[in-house]
Structures are given as structure tokens and as C-alpha cells.
Amino acid sequence: MQQAFYGLIDKLTERVRGNEVLLANFAGEESDFVRFNRSLVRQAGSVHQRGLGLELIDGQRHLSGRCSLTGDETTDRSRADRLLADLRESLPTVPEDPYLFYATEVNNTEQIVANRLPDSGEMTDAVLAAGKGTDLVGILASGGIFRGFGNSLGQRNWFATYSFHFDWSFYHTADKAVKTSYAGFHWDQSTFDTKVVNARQQLARLSLPTMTISPGGYRIYIPPAAMQELMGMLMRGFSLKAHRTKSTCLLKMVEEGRTLAPSVTIRENTAEGMSPNFQGAGFIKPDSVTMIEAGKLKDTLASPRTAKEYGVKTTGSEFPSSLDLAGGDLDDQDILTKLDTGIFVNQLWYLNYSDRPAARITGMTRFATFWVEGGKIVAPLNVMRFDETIYRIFGDNLIGLTSQRDLLPSSQTYGSRSTSSMRLPGALVDDFTFTF
Amino acid sequence: MLEKLESDFRKRAPKVDFCSLRFVRSFREGLAVRQDVPQPVHREEDAGVMVTVMHNGGMGYGATSDLSAAGLNNAIEKASLWASRTAGRSVVDFRKVSMPQPKGQYSGPNKTPWSRTSVRDKFDLLMSLSKRLKFNDKIVDWSASMGHEDIDLFYLTAGGGRVYQQLHTTAPDLRVTASEGAEAQTRSFGGGIYCLQGGLEVLEQFGFANAPEQVADEALALLAAENCPSGKRDILLAPDQMTLQIHESIGHPLELDRILGDERNYAGTSFVTLDMIGEYRYGSELLNVVFDPTRPEQLASFGYDDDGLEASREYIIKDGIVVRALGGTVSQARTGFPGVANSRADGWNRPPVDRMANLNVEPGNASLEEMIASIERGVYMRTNRSWSIDDSRNKFQFGCQWGRLIENGKLTKLVKNPNYRGISATFWQSLSAVGNADTLEVLGTSNCGKGEPNQMMFVAHAGPPCVFTDVDVFGGM
Q: CA-to-CA distance for A280 and A26, rounded, in angstroms?
């Protein structure tokens, strides 16, 4: 696939005229998806897709388009030629772009993870076996993901990974469930078995009589999987454009110098993430960008266009794809003791802003959420809505972050399988506001 | 190309209980001007097929962007392999599902095709609108944009079914952010839900060319406004908030696949159970909801769903009682309940699941003025900006861009950050007035997320403004 893409770029480069510059992006996927419900299969199938994005540049004018590819060399060359011709024909009608910015220095890279996946039929068998006697629902996604970049200046970049992501819940009744995931590059049955045993143990706790808490402030432990939802709300807050156009949720940090707790350091950690280190205009992302250091705003993220608009250096992207929150000094093993009396959340759900400039967020607890007394789990809780600000959660009321962190690959599959991930600790927070 | 595809499929379709091919080709173009600077133009053409095989009770699919005979062979092999692997291990016994064998065609409106005007002319329009959005230093960001999509859908079954459908959608948008210090307010033209089927005539239908000043004026006014007060009040929701209210707290809870548990690991379950269909009082007697794919201009109108079921208008809630749920052929077979033609996929590379399509609240008999006059202490809210609801689709909290107090039957002070909370199971029972046909607006959205693997689908809701009594409202910080 890599050679086919490179060959296609070579041919397209031969067709570049005069001062034209051509950028090409490739996205491909050979995935199997098996969806489960009630410990049986609901839908199963395979998706093979390849797409080529071309951007034709002439002076300050540029135009981009995308077409599907088939994998057949002759057909794909014909499609790419047609797309290039269409772009060339329309280019004169497009206004000049003062913020056009693409890489002119050639940086070739290659990130390839070898295929160590078993047949997805075998993984399906393992999942069905694990679900016996329970109500299992979820999705197994597996297979190869491919990304490429090339330009008429001679740059070539390739990213290939073969991974799986099994994201599932064991259901008790109604909305009570234990949600877990198992993701990686190599299916290890003993690791999977351990996750299944742990999930079944939590499931047993859901048999205890449920409690409903009254609205108010509670001490709460937010594990890494739930932190992923909270951090997801900050993803657009680090963008330079969002800062300059006052649409960032961190506006009070930008305008009033508000700070978070000194233990909060947030980076875009490309070097230790799971995404390609190159981007659509040919820039290589820096290994790491620190957006919040010891609770204070530091650097921002800027796409090439934003960088040109505001006269700064580009970080390749406006939004993180390998977000990293530094660990703290709490030990995972001591969490229930430190929580003492309060709420142990497993997952948060459907977060949105109540007041974005104030960084005020609402959302729900979901799946297994427990009431803890004297460091012991007492009862599962019915779902509750929270309404809190980032400044209280990760500022005034943050008791601490765990030293252990989880690498959490994104399970999102909109259009194609995501390569994003987060590396996050858990957080112990005081006086967390639940509304109803 | 479609003839060759059909010929290849008919030659190669395996001898199984059921086999279908679904071809989807879409062409999208998006144009925008931000801060009076044209943004990069992006065009996207996507095409591929999904082959579905049902055999011996199992089901599998194979999807590919390779439309050659060899690509089709591979897709058929994959679909057959998964059907074989899942036979006897599926939550659905597909031997009991009678799949439609439809024959027909459908073409949505397209009075003034997108290609009728050049890219340059479209940019000229957007630039002129953009320049009218910025007339005050407190306006810190502004943009004018429009997007268009042409979609071809071709569905074949080995049993002789053949359906060809063409859809065209257009969506204009304007956005303005006004800011001072650490406060910012964004006002948009419909909040991203001004989308209809059709070509350039859609711009006129929404009054796109006349909108900039009002959008910018309202952003500035909101910046200076007080926060919405807290407490119990009646609320009057405009159609551009009713869209979200219908979608989240009627549409999703009544999807049969959620009720059956398919979505429990991702989009969630439902507080509605099968035994409630036909009996449950969902709302007051004023509430009438229809699944209506027959309004051609509405975004999610079509002739047949993606499993080939012919679409028809059906009551979902009649006089406040749930009479039918939202489920396509497979969900209907699983439950034995009637449903609607709403088995839909967001592209060739995702399998169909139960979706809303056009789900509309029928108009009542109140004028907007009468509804305002009927409220002693309330808030009129327009344009959704925030939404959050639990996974049973019960406890919700929604926020709007714009609010105005209603005191003693009159509109008074403008308020910012209006939010409200409720519980679906009781909220619709507090429906006390429904706007008449003159107040109804037809709106839509292209970003409803659901399914595993995930799918982003276009859906639509028509509705009048409605009054709900004694609702918990609040403002910002």
C-alpha cells in the first residue's frame, strides 16, 4: 500500500506544471467490526477503504479535493489524474489565501507497526466465551490503519499500524453496567481474562441495593476512563485561534490569569502517542508541546493556517491527538482510603458546557458509580447530573492526581478508526457539585 | 457505472437466504469566509459499496471502495464469511427477518442546482455577508459559510429489488462572537440547523442574505445582557430549540434498537420499554409526533430506507400516547411491533441502524403572541448551544444562545446563558401550548452520532414553538 501510494505521488508529480505544488494525503483502513449485544453478535463485517486527498497550490491560490481509491493501480491513477485536472480547472476561480502555509522543507518519516493480530474470528470466539452467563454488549474493531503524505517537493511520510480495540460493558439491569476496554497491537488472552474477571467482580457489586444521593457537593474519585471525558471538553481550549477569537473554554486563564492547581501539567505528547507524527500540509509535529505547566497557561496549539495568521510557529494541529496529563502523588491502591466517604465514579457521559467562557461543564455519571463510606464500597448509585467548573475540579478542589496513569486509545470510529489517545491519571476531587 | 455494478452484482450474488448491495456516492463542497478572508475550499467525493449476506440465521457485511468486479468479489466473500461465522451466534435469527425486495426511485428537490453559480460567485456572496457581520470592535470573530452535498443511493437485492435515489442538501450558516474581557457570547444563524434538501434555493428559503445584521446585533446585545435568572418558570421554546428537544428526548428514547439494548455500550439505552408502546402517556394531549419522510424539502426525506423499506408517514405519538416506535425491518422482526422506514447508514462503509429521519411535532392552534400572553413568569429561549442527557434519555440539561424574560404576558429583558433542566418522562407532560401552522419551522442537522462502529447521520425535525410549565431554569456564572 505504501509503495502504491508513493508510486501514485511520483506519477502525479510528473503532471505538476510551472509553479504548481501538489500535496497528497492518503488514508486507508482494512478493518473488521463485530458488534455484540446480550453476549451474542448483533452485526459483523469488514470495511476496506482507501482515500486520496490532493491539494493543488499555485502562488497564493489553493484548492483541495478527495476521491476514493480502489487499490487497483490503473484505476487509481485514472481517478487521481481526474481529480488533479478538476482542481486545476477550478483553481483560478478560488480567491488568494493570505494564510496559505505548507511545508517546503523535505522531512521523510516512517512509522510502521508490524501486524501481530490474530484473525478477528478468533477474537470474536474469545469475546463470546467471555460473555457466557452475562449480558455483554460492545464493539470489537481490529485491523490495519494507514496514513500517508507526499508532495511534489519530494517529501514522503508513511504510518501503518495494526491494532484492536474491544470496548464493552457487562450489564446488570437497566442502566447499571460495568464498562471496560481492552486495546493493543497483540491480543494476549491472559490479559483479556484478567480484565474479564475484574469486570465480573465489579458487576457483582451492582447487585447491592442502589442509593440515590441528594444534590450537593461530594468528594469524588474520577478514574482515568472518566477523566478522558473531562479532558475531551478541554481539547478545543488549547487552540491559539480559540484563544484569539475568545472561544476557548480557558478564557479566564487567557484574560484574567486564572490558574489551575500546581499539580496540573498538560501536554500534547506526540512522541509517546499512537497517532502519525506528520500532518496534512507536510509538517512534522513537535515531540511535545506543554499547554499548561504547573497550573499555568504556557504554549498553544496552532495549525499551519493559524500559525501564518497570527505569526507564530505551527505545532501541526489545532487540537491534541495525544493528550498527556502528568501524574501526581496519590497511589491507586490508596484511593478508597483517601476517598473515605464519597463517590467512586467509573464513567462520565455526555458532557457539554453550561457556560463555556466560565469553563462550566455539565454531564452525567454512567454505568457503575458507587457510594463509598469509611473507604469501603457501600452501594451502587443511580445516575446523577453534575455541573462544575474546570477551575474547581482541577484547581481549588483538586486533592490530588494518581501517580499511575493509563494510556487510553480512542474508541471512536466516525468515518474511520481513530488513532488518537490520552495518557491520564485519576483525580481525587472535593466538593464536586451534583445537581439532580 | 451503475449498470456495470448491477450486472457484476447479479452475476456474482451468492445463493444464500438474502443478499443485497448498497452503493453510495456523495459529493460535498464547503465554502467559508472568516473575518473577511476566504477559507480553503474543500471538495470531497466518496463512493463505495456494502454487500450484506444473510444465511442460516447469520448476517455479515463487506464494504469496499473498490468498485471493480474483483473488489465486489472480495466484499461478497467477506460478507459471506461473517454470515457463516455468526450463524447460530447472532442476537437476531435472520431467518425470521423478511427483507424487502423494493422497486422504485426517488429524487429530492433541486430547483437551483449548486453548480448553477461559480465558486467565485458564491465567495462574492459570502464575502458580502461577512463584511456586514463586523461593525463593532467587540465583535472578535465572524464567519459566513455554506455547504452542499449531492448523494446517489443505489440499492439492489439478489431477489430482484432495485431502488435508485438522489438527494441534494444545502446548509448556510453565519456566526458572530462578541467579547469583552473574559466574557464572550456567540450567536449563530440557526445554530447549524438551517439545512434542507435542495439546491441554492435553500439560501433564499432561510433568508440568508438578510440575516447578518440581526445575528451580529444579537451577539452584541447578549454580551451586555444579564444572566438568565434561576428558579421555576414557564419556558417558551422556539423551533430552533424544539429541534433539539424533540431529537434528544423523544426521538432517541423511542428508537427500537436502543430499547433492544444494541446501543447500551455507546449511545445508551432508553427509559421506554416495549410494553409501553401503545399505552404510555409520553406527553400532554397536545403532543402529536409524526415520522414524516414525505415532506420533500425536509433534510431526511427519502423514498426508501437503507434496508429497502418504502417510507411512509406514521404517527409515533398521538394525543400524548406512544403508538409506534422508531424501528426498521430488522427491529420490527425482533419485536413484533410495527415501526417505520428508518434503517439508515451514514455511508457505504457502515451498516444500517435505527435512526430518526424526519421526526416532527405537529402544529397546534396557538399563535406566538397568544403563547407569550399566556405566560405570567417565563423565559423565551432560542437556538440550541448546549445539550446533555443521561443514557436512558431521561435527565437532561439544555442551553440556548438567546433568552428573553416573559413577565405578565409580555416579553421584557434580554438574558444570556439561558439553561433548563428536566426529565423526559415528565417534561412533555408539562406541554401546555403548541404553536399553530404559521409558527412551524422545518429544520435539520447533520451531526447525530450513534452506532458501533460510529455513524454521523443527518436527521430533521419540524416543529412549532411550544410552552412548558414550571421548568427549572438557570443562567451562567
A: 9
Q: Does A332 touch chain B (CB under 8 A)?
A: no
Instruction: Give A226's contacts in chain B (Cβ within 8 Å).
Output: none
B192 pLDDT tier (thresholds 50, 70, 90): confident
- Within 8 A of A171 by CB-CB distance, chain B residues are 261, 264
Average of per-residue pLDDT values in chain A: 97
Grid cell 449531492 is found at: B150
Cα dist from A269 to A160, A300, A316, B367, whole Å: 19, 13, 13, 56
Shared-domain flag, residues B96 and B179: yes
Supply the pLDDT for residue B1: 86
Nearest-angstrom CA–CA distance, B355 and B377: 37
Enclosing H/E stretch for A99: none
Total domains in chain B come to 2
Cell of B358: 424526519
B193 and B295 fall within a common domain: no
The verdict on A246 touching B (C-beta cutoff 8 Å) is yes
B145 and B281 fall within a common domain: no
Cβ–Cβ under 8 Å, residues B100 and B309? yes
Residue B152's domain comprises 2-224
Question: Looking at the structure, do residues A82 and A135 belong to the same domain, yes or no?
Answer: yes
Last residue of a domain, one of B163, B192, B224: B224
One domain for residues A115 and A224: no
Give the residue from A163, A160, A161, A185 showing the smallest Cα distance to A3. A160
The answer to whether the Cβ–Cβ distance between B349 and A38 falls below 8 Å is: no
pLDDT tens digits for B138-155? 999 999 999 999 999 999
In tens, the pLDDT along B332-380 reads: 999 999 999 999 999 999 999 999 999 999 999 999 999 999 999 999 9
Amino acid occupying residue B229 = P
A72 contact residues in B (CB cutoff 8 A): 66, 68, 70-71
Nearest to A42 among B79, B91, B476 (CB): B91
CATH code, domain with B173 = 3.30.2290.10
Query: Is the bond leading into B293 cis (omega within 30 degrees of zero)?
Result: no
Test the B interface: residue of A350, A385, A410, A418 with most B CBs within 10 Å:
A350
Q: Which of B150, B184, B192, B156 is nearest to B169 (CA)?
A: B150
Residues B93 and B146 in one domain: yes
The three cell numbers of residue B123 are 465567495
Q: What's the pLDDT at B477?
A: 75
Which chain B residue is nearest to residue A172, measuring alpha carbons? B264
- Residue B316 sits at φ, ψ, to 5 deg, of -105, -45
Do A23 and A95 lie in one domain? The reply is yes
Q: Are A70 and B45 in contact (CB < 8 Å)?
A: no
Judge contact between B398 and B420, C-beta under 8 A: yes
Q: Is the pLDDT of residue B411 over 90?
A: yes
Residue B42's pLDDT is 87
Tell me how many domains chain A contains: 2
> Based on the domain organization, do A69 and A23 belong to the same domain?
yes
Provide the β-strand partners of residue A322.
Answer: A421
Measured CA to CA, the distance from residue B126 to residue B132 in angstroms comes to 10
Q: How far is A202 from chain B (nearest CA, A)?
A: 16
Residues B464 and B338 placed together within one structural domain of the fold = yes
ipTM score of the complex? 0.97
**Could you list the residue range(s) of the whole structural domain that residue A429 is in?**
216-258+326-434
Confidence of residue B258 (pLDDT cuts 50, 70, 90): very high
Q: Taking a C-beta distance cutoff of 8 angstroms, is the pair A243, A300 a contact?
A: yes
A236 touches chain B (CB under 8 A): no
Q: Is the pTM of this model over 0.80?
A: yes
**Which helix (DSSP H) or strand (DSSP E) does residue A243 occupy?**
helix A240-244
Low-confidence ranges of chain A (pLDDT < 50): none
Q: Is A256 on the interface with B (CB under 8 A)?
A: yes
Q: Distance between CA atoms of B345 and B347, rounded to whole angstroms?
A: 5
In this complex, which of A49, A72, A99 lies closest to B37 when CB atoms are compared?
A: A99
